[in-house]
Amino acid sequence: MFDIFQNTNRPKQDLFFKKNDRNDVRLGEIVSLSVKNYGKSEIIILGCPQDEGVERNKGRIGAAFAPNSIRTQFYKLSNFEISVEIFDLGDTIIQKTLEETHDLQTKIVEQVLRDGKRLMMLGGGNDISYADGMAMAKVFGNEYWSAFNIDAHFDVRADVPRTSGTPYRQLLEERYILPENFYEIGCQPQANSPVYFDYLKNLGATIISLEEIQKNVPLEKTLRSVLSANCSLFWGFDTDSVRAADAPGVSAPSPIGLTAEEFINLAGFAGSLQETKIVEFTEVNPNFDIDNRTAKLVAIAMHKFCQSKNKKG
Questions:
Q1: Starting at the edge strand that comes first in sequence, how are the strands of the sheet with 276-282 ordered?
Q2: Can you give the residue range of the structural domain that contains 51?
Q3: Is residue 283 part of a domain?
Q4: Does residue 61 sit within a domain?
Q5: Which of 56, 127, 301, 310 shows its CA 20 to 30 Å from the CA of 278?
Q6: CB of 156 within 8 A of CB of 168?
Q7: Number of domains within the chain
Q8: What residues form DSSP beta bridges with 280?
């Protein structure tokens, strides 16, 4: 069996906030980092602290600092309505190249999934969706999982070498996911090429733009109508999908986007579905954050995901 503990760095103790008040317990006091508790935990936290793909894509570097920035905010939150056991596996050990990091990331995620866990993945750049998606295909089969890319961008660029803008094209071209099981959620026309729009439409992928979300029926109702009982689910939450007023610290900010409430509620919806195996948060950039607003947004979305575990989807 692949040893996930030898290929990850343990999280630092000082990230785990402790209030030492039995009437006001915080997540930093109950989330485990002891290896012996991995087996009994249902939700696993894993970071991938790198932004090489963002740099290749000419984005603002800084996402490498995101996992610990998010952890700092998450572990300050209360345990209100969270009863599920959570284990922090730490961070994937970053390799010499992005390609090597992706290879290792895939092996770690594959083992976590085979162990029957749900994964809360903290990027890093959005390029890790390729590695995480490959793990989904290896564990569940390429026909039996669906991916939801919540993002302003399609991330199906034809760039070589791979970047933070290529992960879903890689998955589609290499047949790790079927086009009919791929959903683009919250995309913005001014941020994407019409060439890639046509590419997705010709393949048969589903595209739900930001404008459609904010003008038509509630997004959860739309997504519920397309869910398949036979598919395990992957949710890629790129914080570029959120308007800059609510998420200033991202790799590619925009004045328009999902609201903080829409982003958090969608994470809760993902958590309420038993088919959800991975929820991935990427492109937080602490170098440009204001009052840790973006890290706090992801922390609250993680809390909502965990809180929703026992609620019917």
A1: 8-9, 86-92, 43-48, 118-123, 276-282, 232-238, 145-150, 182-187, 206-209
A2: 8-307
A3: yes
A4: yes
A5: 56
A6: yes
A7: 1
A8: 121, 236
Tokens of 296: 């706090």
> Would 245 be classed as within a structural domain?
yes
pTM score > 0.90 for this model? yes
In tens, the pLDDT along 62-110 reads 999 999 999 999 999 999 999 999 999 999 999 999 999 999 999 999 9
DSSP β-bridge partners for residue 123: 48
Instruction: Kindly list the distances between the CA atom of residue 251 and the CA atoms of 22, 37, 122, 131, 242, in Å, as whole numbers in the listed order.
Output: 39, 34, 14, 20, 11
